[in-house]
Backbone:
């Protein structure tokens, strides 16, 4: 993928949530998810499950947008979406008590 393709993706409406670029949201989301996972407090973990669940739903929509609407293969985007799904699975498994960090 070249820089022009990345620029096209970043300029789409899907690249922003409530006017904020998705990449900027990630700067707050990933530390929050890590805090929730490692805090060892059930409430914090529940908040991390909710946040990663929302991020996973958004990732599904963004994956659809990339593949179907924009017809673009963005490996970096796909990796980020996969990380969101993995974080959700880890947090949910720990929250349900079937896994430990």
Residues:
């Amino acid at each position: 993928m070249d820089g022009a393709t990345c620029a096209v993706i970043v300029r789409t409406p899907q690249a922003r949530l409530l006017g904020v670029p998705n990449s900027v949201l990630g700067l707050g989301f990933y530390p929050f998810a890590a805090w929730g996972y490692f805090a060892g407090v059930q409430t914090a973990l529940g908040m991390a499950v909710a946040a990663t669940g929302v991020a996973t739903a958004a990732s599904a929509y963004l994956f659809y947008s990339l593949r179907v609407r924009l017809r673009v293969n963005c490996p970096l985007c796909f990796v980020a979406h996969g990380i969101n799904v993995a974080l959700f699975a880890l947090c949910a498994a720990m929250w349900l008590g079937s896994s430990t960090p």
Summary: The chain has one domain: 22-95. The chain has a mean pLDDT of 85. Residues 1 and 57 are 25 Å apart (CA to CA).
